[in-house]
Specification:
The complex is a heterodimer of chains A (402) and B (373). Chain A has 402 residues and is mostly helical. In chain A, 75% of the residues lie in helices and 1% in strands. The chains are: A mainly alpha (402), B alpha+beta (373).
Chain lengths: 402, 373
Amino acid sequence: MRTFRIFIIGTVTDLLRALMLASLAVAAYAAPYVPAEDATVLERLPVRPGDPVARELRQLRAELTANPRRRDTAVRLAERYFELASSEGDPRYVGYAQAALKPWWDLPAPPLDVLVMRAILKQYSHDFSGAMQDLEGATREDPQNARAWSWRGAIHMVQADYERAREDCLTLAKLESELYAAGCIAYLDGTTGKAAAAYRALSAALAKNADAAPEVKVWVLTRLAEMALRQGDAKQAEEHFRAAYFEPINDQFLLAAYADFLLDQGRPEEVVPLLVDWVKSDILLLRLALAERALKAPKAREHTEALRSRFDAAALRGDKLHQQEEARFNLYLLGNKEKALALARENWKLQREPRDARILLEAALAMKDPAAAQEALDWLERSGHEDPALRRTAEKLKALKR
Amino acid sequence: MKALPAALLLLVASSALAHKPSDSYLAIRVEGSNLSGQWDIALRDLDFAIGLDDSGDGDITWGEVKAHHADAAAYALARLKLRSGTADCPASATEFLVDDHSDGAYSVMRFEARCPDDVTTLEISYSLFADLDPQHRGLLRLEHGTGTRTAIFGPERATQSFELAKISALTQFVDYGREGVWHIWIGFDHILFLLSLLLPAVLVLEGGRWQAVARFPPAFWEVFKIVTSFTVAHSITLSLAALGVISLPSRLVESAIATSVVLAALNNVFPVVHGRRWMVAFAFGLIHGFGFASVLRDLGLPQGALLIALVGFNLGVEIGQLAIVSAFLPVAYGLRASWFYRRLVFVGGSTAIAGIAGIWLIERAFNMKIITP
């Protein structure tokens, strides 16, 4: 009788839970509605109309509408939109930038300034081969074009083509100031097993250029933190993260890297205040949800659901831009190891940075399938990348093989 | 600041930081020569295209959206061409709502379009925001009959054509049949009514007391008569109502159905009518037929295939009903002599049915909610 009663109570709680979940699901996919009042605010524009940025954009757009073939205006507008896309993380602006370049977009050989801008926009959509083709055209036409060389280096780094990346950095060194050239080489060396030397070189370059723009400083400090981590110095890394955080600009890369560091250090409670205002950004929401899950915070489920619906929407659209994040989401928030591994492998075909290797190794370890991560293991050998956490995961995977 | 650092900052992977790109969600349902649709467009995108923020404060309010509904509809519908074969199907907006998607608020526009003939090939040309944001995509869900298809529209694939397989009469027949089975299965009021009439079929009233029937054939014929007369009766009213010959207010019908269940169940506990239960089944069957008709109406009756739908649905109801009866009869016959059946199932069950139906009656007659069905 007692067990029966327990069974009944258990069933009732299960039922209630199921009902609660069902009502949550209904709330998440609420039906279209008519707002109660005219004054209800439905949407907040990210760039306020009175903003100087908005004013400049409006003016450039008006000029371009009056004369759509004015190239300098078009390129300047595209430039502004690309900056917005980077700072706001909103791909719409890349579309707006592309629209500004419309008269030249499909030309086989557009003028140099359009060519470089087109490459930058193409790489944003992960069309790396298209972007590289444009950049090669640009550096052929103008071998002194530092900007084109630096983007070439950036793309070669993502593709883990370190030989070509080195050529790009060395060319850049002849054209640009010390901090940029040092940054390029240090980024390469720091990824390929020479973190200590790269760290020293980049620190020295930063010390000599203390007046650099905050954007540059944040980038350099984030790289320094990563290199410190690769040498196993968490304390030094945190100092750099904090210094970058207190620079007067917002940088989503920094926030993501800093949050990952805190998560790895087992300090999820510090991640929440860092990211609480960034739920619109997919990758930062992912870190926030991971922290909330670790803390068993009530918001974890809501944020997991929000991420799920965003990944679903991307899948509907046929986007493959978020596979690295989606793999992490599946592995750590949904516990769907199989899908995580499939996504991580798919992502590796396109992007081969250390964090891409990391999720591939971790997903393969979760699936106990070392063969699936063979390419990442090979990359680790070939590059000599030093991150101790990556190396530990790789060792565990290799142990499975034996 | 020089332009260079942008590259040095290695924004290569920056799209991974992105929130959702610009998409619109377009759902179109094809029924004969009519198209009905719902189009969800992000308010941010509409604002960029036609300007919604009249007050210039960066907040888009419902009032501002409302003021631009006509512009928005004109702007959007001019960028959506629907064609059946070579003929245009002009569309017009019918309703405006708002919905919250994962990346913000969307304007929801419902629209209708009329083609000259039944649509067999639907061609859709989509160019919304093509000039403003080539990265924008339109995500289409196309429904036709019981099939659903999806497609993605963008500047590279702005026009796409969809062959709509003609639904065969057989498919339609089977579809409506399936709906009929489903409805009897989820229509508790019909099941309970039938059960109330069937429960006494394995018993006979002798000297004011219920006794088990001696042999199977009388029980079987009793059930047969009840089910047949219920079927004939509800088929008559279902057809009349579906064809629009008679129409009754649904509240009246639903209340009458609940009453029929109460009376049928009470009659088991306090027998008034006995021996001629098939007549009761026939009389109340007429009312239940109106209930089925309203379900059929909600499903939508295909023009030109009215009879197929009607017969298919009705047959489905009968099949579902037969399944219930054939499950019930052997069990009831086997248990008829037991105390369990005569007291608990028959009296207890009938009382419970009367109670439930009584609550339905109050709910339906007074339009209030006591229990959820």
